[in-house]
Design a protein that fits this description.
Layout: H1 8-17, H2 24-37, E1 42-52, E2 55-65, E3 76-81, E4 84-87, E5 90-92, H3 94-106, H4 113-116, E6 117-122, E7 126-131, E8 135-139, H5 149-178, H6 187-197, E9 201-204, H7 209-226, H8 234-238
Parallel strand pairs: 3-8, 8-9
Antiparallel strand pairs: 1-2, 1-9, 3-4, 4-5, 6-7
Helix pairs in contact: 1-2, 3-5, 5-6
């Protein structure tokens, strides 16, 4: 992982993989400069297929947006304040993050199925229905004029726990479908599984956790119920902006 970052997304990608490296403090300084100088800072994961020699492989990265998405389906919020973690607005700890995220993302409450599930035609699987629930990983770096190296390390450790949840689910699907580990699949089958359970992670680096919870949860759940606002259709609810 020696490439020079050409964008904000690549810098975060490098920071994630180099969080235990001696160059990590220097990367943290760059991250703080970016966040403090931005009006809003939001990154989301995407995947790409690249060619390594004659071999096609799947990789992932972050794309940068200068706006916060408006999403009114289910979403798992993971808010970090110092070394405290709030999972879906409840105080928790990093050791519980993987278990809680797996249950929320891939086995949501059946009563909320209309908010979480999406039906799509997927190569090798046909038309299937599966939960589509993004994760918002939130920390208020801007309000503190940047995070310490320790705080950044904790942030990326939390992110690693979430990514392992997605990796676990993709491997489960691969074993269920072909009895082969995900990493051993050809790229076409990896892509199909990614379309079902690939990383759906949003990083919000300049949000106060209390503000985020009030805006997203109260607006989309309480306001829709009690202020007679138009109720979105199923298609609108499942649309991720």
């Amino acid at each position: 992982m020696n490439r020079t970052a050409k964008s904000e997304g690549e810098l975060f990608y490098q920071a994630y993989y180099l969080r235990n490296d001696t160059c990590f403090p220097s990367i943290c300084q760059q991250l703080n400069m970016i966040i403090v100088s931005s009006n809003e800072f939001y990154l989301n994961t995407f995947f790409d297929i690249y060619t390594n020699g004659n071999i096609r492989e799947i990789d992932w990265d972050f794309s940068f947006n200068n706006y916060i998405p408006r999403y009114c389906g289910l979403e798992l919020s993971v808010c970090i304040e110092d070394e405290n973690i709030y999972i879906d607005r409840k105080l928790s700890c990093i050791s519980e993050l993987r278990k809680s995220a797996y249950s929320f993302l891939f086995h949501p409450d059946s009563s909320l199925r209309y908010l979480s599930n999406k039906e799509r035609e997927i190569d090798f699987f046909g038309k299937i229905e599966f939960p589509v629930i993004p994760v918002a990983l939130i920390v208020n770096g801007k309000g503190k004029n940047g995070l310490s190296v320790k705080e950044w390390k904790f942030f990326f450790d939390c992110m690693s726990e979430i990514i392992m949840v997605y990796d676990k689910r993709m491997n489960e699907i691969s074993l269920e479908k072909w009895n082969i580990n995900y990493k051993s699949l050809p790229v076409e089958k990896k892509e199909a599984i990614w379309n079902i359970a690939g990383y759906n992670l949003n990083l919000l680096l300049d949000r106060d956790c209390r503000f985020y919870s009030e805006y997203y949860y109260e607006y989309y759940y309480e306001h829709l119920d009690f202020r007679n606002l138009p109720t979105p259709t199923k298609e609108e609810i499942l649309d991720i902006h």
